[in-house]
Write a structure and sequence with these properties.
Number of domains: 2
Number of helices: 7
Structural class: alpha+beta
Largest sheet: 4 strands, mixed
Number of strands: 6
């Protein structure tokens, strides 16, 4: 049986960023994962998946468990020989059984929790991105990957990117071009609040905004 983690995320949230970052693990509902293990999930390389990490860590844990079990049994054997000199009987406890690791899905949950812990920083980075040439484009490739309860809740994902390929904003909609007024007004407000000059140009790949204005 996997032991329940005794630490509390509510207490960690009360710490300042410096001390919170020194905490060596990322917490989930009942368990915790070492940050060093999460680092192995971050590289975007072929074959790097939560399943691969789970299998690799379980192999490492099993090897360490085997070494410690051998050490324990060896010490018991030596102690038994010494007790034979005094003709005293000693009963030894069985070594603890191997405790399997959680499933690969749990590692994904821990990874998601680690990302969410930096949500404020991510929002700050995203909302501090500007550009002089903007492009508004919609795609269905991302929405087709939605699964579970949110599947089929959106058909288009619309992005606004600058000349460097950085995403300024992104929304999910039920139709291409419809309901994007708030998206554009949010970008206008961001530039205005930051005192940034207006973009020199904003373009689309086709008439996705023809519902509210003329397209060329």
């Amino acid at each position: 049986m996997i032991p329940v983690c005794p630490w509390s995320s509510e207490i960690l949230k009360q710490l300042d960023p410096s001390h919170r970052n020194k905490f060596p693990a990322v917490l989930t509902t009942h368990l915790a994962l070492d940050r060093k293990c999460l680092t192995l999930l971050k590289p975007r390389t072929a074959g790097n998946s939560s399943s691969f990490l789970q299998q690799a860590l379980e192999e490492i844990h099993s090897e360490e468990w085997a070494r410690r079990t051998i050490d324990y049994l060896t010490d018991c054997e030596l102690h038994k020989k010494r007790c034979a000199l005094t003709q005293s009987e000693v009963v030894y406890e069985q070594p603890p059984p191997f405790c399997p690791l959680p499933l690969a899905q749990w590692f994904e949950t821990a990874h998601a929790n680690e990302i969410l812990s930096h949500l404020d920083e991510l929002k700050g980075v995203v909302t501090s991105t500007y550009g002089s040439i903007l492009k508004l484009d919609s795609t269905k490739k991302i929405t087709k990957k939605l699964a579970g309860g949110i599947a089929d809740t959106a058909t288009w994902m619309t992005n606004i990117v600058n000349e460097f390929g950085q995403v300024l904003n992104c929304v999910l909609t039920t139709g291409e071009g419809a309901g994007l007024d708030d998206l554009c007004q949010g970008i206008v407000k961001r530039y205005k609040d930051a005192g940034e000059p207006d973009p020199a140009a904003i373009y689309v790949d086709r008439d996705c905004c023809s519902e509210t204005g003329l397209s060329s």
